Amino acid sequence: MIEVKLEPLGKRIWVESGASLQDVLFEYGVEFPCGGEGSCGNCRVKILQGELSVNDVQERFFSSEELAGGWRLACQCRVFEPVTLEIAQWEMQILADEEGFQTAGRSGYAVAVDLGTTTLVAQLLDLATGNVAGTQSALNPQAQYGGDIMSRVEYGTHPDGAVKLREQIRSALLKMILDLLSMGSVKELPLRQIFIVGNTVMHHLFCGRDVTPLSCAPFETVGGAEFTAAANGIGWDLPGNPEVRFLPCIGGFVGSDILAGIIATGLVTETDLTALIDLGTNGEVVIGNRQKILCASTAAGPAFEGAKISMGMRATTGAISKVTLSNRQFVGHVLGGGQARGICGSGLVDAVAGALELGLIDQTGRITSPDGRIVIQNTVTIIQQDIRELQLAKAAIAAGLEILLRRFSATFSDLKKLYIGGAFGNYIGVANAQKIGLFSGVDTSVMQAGNTALRGVKQLLLREPDYHTLLKQIAHIVLATDAGFMDRFVANMTFTECLR
Prior knowledge:
Layout: E1 2-7, E2 11-15, E3 19-20, H1 21-25, E4 44-49, H2 56-61, H3 64-68, E5 71-73, E6 78-79, E7 83-86, E8 109-115, E9 119-126, E10 132-139, H4 149-156, H5 159-181, E11 191-198, H6 200-207, E12 227-230, E13 243-246, H7 256-265, E14 274-279, E15 283-288, E16 293-298, E17 319-326, E18 329-334, E19 342-343, H8 345-358, E20 373-377, E21 380-383, H9 384-407, E22 417-421, H10 423-427, H11 430-435, E23 446-450, H12 452-463, H13 467-473, E24 474-476, H14 485-491
Parallel strand pairs: 1-7, 8-11, 11-13, 14-22, 16-24, 17-19, 22-23
Antiparallel strand pairs: 1-2, 3-6, 4-5, 4-7, 8-9, 9-10, 12-13, 14-15, 15-16, 17-18, 20-21
Helix pairs in contact: 7-12, 9-14
């Protein structure tokens, strides 16, 4: 066993000779958005003592001076001798929901789980009172194999990868549930049910269903049916052996987290046309009312999560999460205070909106400065590639919204409510999102709805609405097959409307 020291955390861990740092460092805050391909650079660490070998991937990524200074990509390194590494301390914002609900009153407890691509949240519910008895949150450990959905799918198409991802997420959720049950305030009452919601990929990976159909067009959901098992049937040793249920997917990449969101927002009871947009590592759009509901997923890419952005990062310590203008200068809010290390999705939206106002970006998205760079704060900058990534993301969401409205023979003026769900949607500056054209045509009230997936699954556990009937009211639209989608996507790439 070889010792690895982590500074400034003051941690000492022991690994087997030849262990990959990708398998070791994720839980200590080192991110691997590209799944270990060495293309994103988010897993940079610095050697303080010892040595890690350099391969051709790192030689292409770092300058000779940086390599000599001890910089390495953790995803490309294996440990063969004692080493001391400098890694950044972090704290991630994970969106939960503490709202309780009135219930008919049953004795015992249940657990509601929001299984996200990036984060996990589990809540223990008192079935008699409807109150939240405890909350546990964590990063999804699968993220060490890729921060976005398609990286996870690619890894899961290999038999050993699929098994590893399944066991990894089941183990993580079991630990969270056991931690909830160990809380001192929990009475000696039975644990009756565990309900889980998540996107289609998370559903398939947890349930052990083949993700291969999701890896290529037409991206069909073959194994999206509801999954039900006794706890011991999936290797969970829990008191009372409760039922574990992963709710069914709607279609394509639209999973049960959106089903829960529809329930949480009350969209199914609305008489007026209402929309729900879930902004996370995948983008889903829902429009409808109590008569009909249409939904679609959009290939928005990971820009909203800070991935594929030159200095992008998740909403963790050191990330610029909000940008304002003061005397025509950028002012960034850094999570956790201190020196900015990068910028997350909500900060990027603010920065681009501000750059448009200052004339630093033209209507095509081109940065007007000669060096093609915009300084946001200290060493944190955005470059042309970053603008393009955000344009792709916002165009996909905006085009999806327009296509679904057209299916209702409706326009933006017919939309009476718009809810934004998901972690990113909760922190985004709504006014700036409209400035960059994310949903600039919407002139109704835009409401940030928080973690609608978690709130909806709690309603399912406590109030027991008939979601099987609801599923029959929802139609999944494959945007790629819509003749007008590409035209609307291209039209929404520019900032023409935003600059008027």
